[in-house]
Amino acid sequence: MAKTLFDKIWERNLVAPETEDRPAILHIGLHLIHEVTSPQAFTVLKERGLKVRRPDLTLGTIDHSVPTLPAGADGRLPYVTAQAEMQVETLRKNCQEQGIPLLDLDDERRGIVHVVGPELGRTRPGIVIVCGDSHTSTHGAFGALAFGIGTTEVGHVLATQSLLQRRPRTMRVTFEGELPDGVGGKDMALAMIAKLGTQGGTGYIIEYQGEAVRQLTMEGRMTLCNMSIEGGARAGMVAPDEVTWAYLENAAGTSLDRDGDLVSDEGAVFDKEIVIDAASLTPMVTYGTSPDAASAANGNVPDAEEGLDYMGFVAGHPLAEYPVNKVFVGSCTNGRIEDMRATARVLNGRKVAEGVLMLIVPGSEAVKRQAEAEGLDQVFVAAGAEWREPGCSMCIAMNGDKGEPGELVVSTSNRNFKGRQGEGVRTVLASPLTAAASAVAGRIADPREYL
Predict the structure, then answer these.
(1) Is the pTM of this model over 0.85?
(2) Which residues pair with 114 in a beta bridge?
(3) Residue 192 and residue 330: Cα distance in Å, rounded?
(4) Distance between CA 327 and CA 341 in Å, rounded?
(5) 259-299 confidence digits (pLDDT tens)
(6) What gap in Å lies between CA 365 and CA 356, rounded to an integer?
(7) CA separation for the pair 129, 396 (Å, rounded)
(8) pLDDT tens-digit profile of 383-415?
(9) For the chain, what percent of residues have pLDDT higher than 90?
């Protein structure tokens, strides 16, 4: 029988099959942890006298609570709260006690959890990857089954290197045709979510196929898979190809055994199918308070039942009429080197509009070094943007980087619900190109005006 990519990965990692009374048990090939969702799990292990079963298949990094501003004259980082600093110290202590590798603040490999996994070659096709973070779906871009888990499940994986899971259904999303210039993975994701709805993918694993998907770099594929969760899906994935293996071999510094079977068989049946004309896509932005409230950046505000009052938008008015207060480029969605290059493409030789604060935050130390080696940081600073240290930053606004009540923030992150980037903040999700164009224009802007 023809099998989907998901079928093959599920079967490879199955420890015990699902029954009516019990979910399946899956082996976890990589468990990523960070400072926010792991402390309670480690506490439970201590209370039960348990050790981490496979420290070698576990990797810790510090990203959510760490400031993106440099240390002060006293050498101390400007943590926004004592609790944030304690979270970092607790992860450091737990990893040391359990023998878990940790990318600490002085580690040149440190960064956002879903950026560093692929950079270090730890993300591999065919395995199951979990993390106490919903955007673990990012790693599916490499042909892995990757999804977020809760704190209780984090503890279970730490103790057993396995996880109870009910088998999800499968969905194929095919992007037909070639992408126009100025349109990338973020626009594809927002267009899909607008069509699917935030609950349309509930209970499904999405496999992305089509010419436009193959056209994407690994960075673009990671962005697309990252946003799968915003359509309600459990995970997203792309079958590995030459682009995938070349990226991983570069990360590993050696050739790899390329598994050619990690692809959906011809004739494989999916539970749901969606087809999108990639050639017709345009740069997208959100206008409401959920990721499915997305429309063309150069269009008018759609007539929506909710969210417009909060956003201060009026149906029928051009989105480009609305002024911007802050712009954020970064996060596990769009904080990679390709995103930095796209931002510089627009900012080069231009200035951020007066009164607009633009934060550009690399997703890892490696991204920061590469951007600086290419002189991108100089482009950013010359344009009037702030070039920060790696971290989750304004995506989740728990490290001090946030907007003020009523401000309109154009963000390359993944969620735009009320209060995500600070109390009363109005968030517009967009690609790095669109975010940079909006910073220059001082309003929501179509990046094609600047390309």
Answers:
(1) yes
(2) none
(3) 21
(4) 16
(5) 999 999 999 999 999 999 999 999 999 999 999 999 999 99
(6) 26
(7) 22
(8) 999 999 999 999 999 999 999 999 999 999 999
(9) 99
- What is d(CA 189, CA 170) in angstroms, rounded to the nearest whole number? 18
DSSP code string of 162-216: EEEEPPPEEEEEEEESPPPTT--HHHHHHHHHHHH-TTTTTTEEEEEESHHHHHS
Phi, psi angles (nearest 5°) of residue 310: -65, -40
Residue 202: CB atoms within 10 A of its CB come to: 14
Cα angle 255, 261, 266 (rounded to 5 degrees) comes to 140
Integer CA distances (angstroms), 267 to 1, 4, 50, 264, 335, in order: 9, 9, 46, 8, 37
> Is 364 in a helix, a strand, or coil?
strand
Helix ranges (H only) for 256-403 are 308-311, 331-334, 337-347, 365-373, 376-383
Q: How confident is the model at residue 305 (pLDDT cuts 50, 70, 90)?
A: confident
d(CA 2, CA 63): 41
